[in-house]
Amino acid sequence: MSKTLFDKVWDSHVVRHVEDGPDVLLIDRHMVHEVTSPVAFLGIKNRGIGVLYPNKTFATADHNTPTINQHLPVEDPLSANQLAALERNAKEHGISHWGLGHEKNGIVHVVGPEYGITQPGATMVCGDSHTSTHGAFGAIAFGIGTSEVEMVLASQCIMQPKPKKMRINVEGELSLGVTPKDVALYIISKLTTSGGTGYFAEFSGEVFRQMTMEGRMTVCNMSIEMGARGGMIAPDEKTFEYIKGREHTPKGADWDRAMEYWKTLYTEEDAVFDKELTFYAKDIEPMITYGTNPGMGQGVSKAIPFSKDAAEAEATYKKSLEYMDFNEGESMIGKPIDFVFIGSCTNGRIEDFRAFTEIVKGRKKADNVTAWLVPGSHKVEAAIKEEGLLDILEEAGFVLREPGCSACLAMNDDKVPAGKYAVSTSNRNFEGRQGPGSRTLLASPLVAAAAAVTGKVTDPRELMQ
Amino acid sequence: MAYDKFEILKSTAYPLPIENVDTDQIIPARFLKATERKGFDENFFRDWRYNKDGSPNEDFILNDTRYAGSKILVGGKNFGSGSSREHAAWSVYDFGLRCVISSFFADIFRGNCLNVGVLPVQVSESFSDNIIKALQEDPTTEIEVNLFEQKVTLLSTGESENFEINGYKKANMLNGFDDIDYLTNIKEEIVEFEAASPLRS
């Protein structure tokens, strides 16, 4: 039977199939961070077992790290304790550790690709649902729980039933001001946050072929927000070009052998998916969310839907708008905002900062806006400086912070206060996600930039020529 | 982490008919800072359970004394979406719940529940609606979840439905086993398999 890209990678990693149960899946690459790993390390300790392949696990600190004064001791004792535990556990088991201040430090899903840990045809997991990011390279990558982190440490395997397969095609060419983030938010708005549950998605079609690797990462990153376990894109010349020469990528004859394998990683023509959807680029506008889940999004120029037209049941929908203090039928354009956050594993890469800078260049940050600009890694931070973006940003009244997950989940001090609105390039607008009582509007770096300079929700196309 | 085995559970239940309950509600990120599995029950649904001043939110179902001590939570559609934090499943278990019933579960949360000893029971939307209605009308209504028979029964009316769980996970839950026991037992096979895959090293 003809195979999909997903079948090829999954099937080649199945150590054994448990009858009337899951597959035992070998994991090639495992990333760990300070929040979801300590209990897993404690687990193997209590069982008296070690880490089976320490060279296949990589540790970086990102979730609760401060984004200013990283050279000073971390003030929050609980965060400091988790960071110390990660360092101690990594050291004890011989695992690479890129802690706070390390030149390779950054968000786990940003540094993985940067150093060539992420590769086509690999299986990759991390105790973080946005591990789906790495699917941009043609890897099967998904988030796992702490019990599974423990399994990977102990046995390099997890036990998972094979998900169903879904293909999402987006055809045509994106219009001005429409970014990969908008493509992701558009798809989620059509599928809802549960439309992909039970599936692993492959993104296909002209839009993804044209998309840069960083854009592909943004889309795959958000695949969890439609409920899918992960999303992936077949590797092509762009993929190979991106990974070539990176620290952990194969070199010389190993590279040639790897390329032979990687070139087989595509969905065969007559392979069958359990579900297939096609969307058109011409229908996609710059997007923004108005509710409390990532599926509650629409073109920035549209009015908030009436509950009778919403995917949610009436009570759920009304509760959501009440939390946001929005009304049905209101326009989003012109709504005043208080915070702008650019960063996270969704939009914390150099292209995102380039896009943001494109809009703010020659303009000034609005006085009513507090802006947090948080690069995804030190490498991104360095590129922002090298490319001269920092000068433009500072000229416009912005300050660049240090890398980390930051206000995406507000485990550090970067918390949006209760009742305040944040236009955020992150991935979740759940109640309290960016701080207790915070109100999040998810959007692209362009929409965030337009909001940052106007102080309100603005269509970025009006500022682009 | 070991958990108590699950066979037949008969209990009252908390009705929570909100859709898309995400794991940031089940346990907000700021409470994920432990390095041990301790104290998660206190922060279970923290921001819905407590008012801003720290006093209990009397309107929230988990604070409704008529349901106190229930071992089952009946949630709305798409329960447990969002983050992969297993802390969400730990907080369910540590709060004293052994079973969550919903017409639809998010994948990672469902898997995490099974790994920590909480049984996710997926039922039809109409049955879920009936259960919630019965619980709201009479908080003493009991539900029986029989894992041997894979059957959930609303005891007040006798209405019942079968639910799915694969044989492997079912045996684990019935015995209180976890996947690591299984995996460490086949370590040699894993090592052999890995060695035959040079490209993956």
Describe it.
The complex is a heterodimer of chains A (465) and B (201). Chain A is of the alpha/beta class. Chain A folds into three domains: 5-160, Aconitase, domain 3, CATH 3.30.499; 164-239 and 259-283, Aconitase, Domain 2 (3-Layer(aba) Sandwich); 290-463, Aconitase, domain 3 (2-Layer Sandwich), CATH 3.30.499.10. Chain A has 16 helices and 18 strands. A five-stranded parallel sheet of chain A has the order 5-4-3-6-7. Chain A has a four-stranded parallel sheet with strand order 11-10-9-12. In chain A, strand 3, helix 2 and strand 4 form a beta-alpha-beta unit. The model of chain A has no long low-confidence stretch (mean pLDDT 97). Chain B contains eight helices and eight strands; from the N terminus they run E-E-H-H-E-H-E-H-E-H-E-E-E-H-H-H. Chain B has helices at residues 23-26, 46-49, 87-94, 107-116, 125-137, 167-175, 179-185, 187-195; strands at 8-11, 13-16, 72-75, 99-102, 119-122, 143-146, 151-154, 160-162. In chain B, the strands form two sheets. A four-stranded antiparallel sheet of chain B has the order 1-6-7-8, with helices on one face. Chain B has a four-stranded parallel sheet with strand order 2-3-4-5.
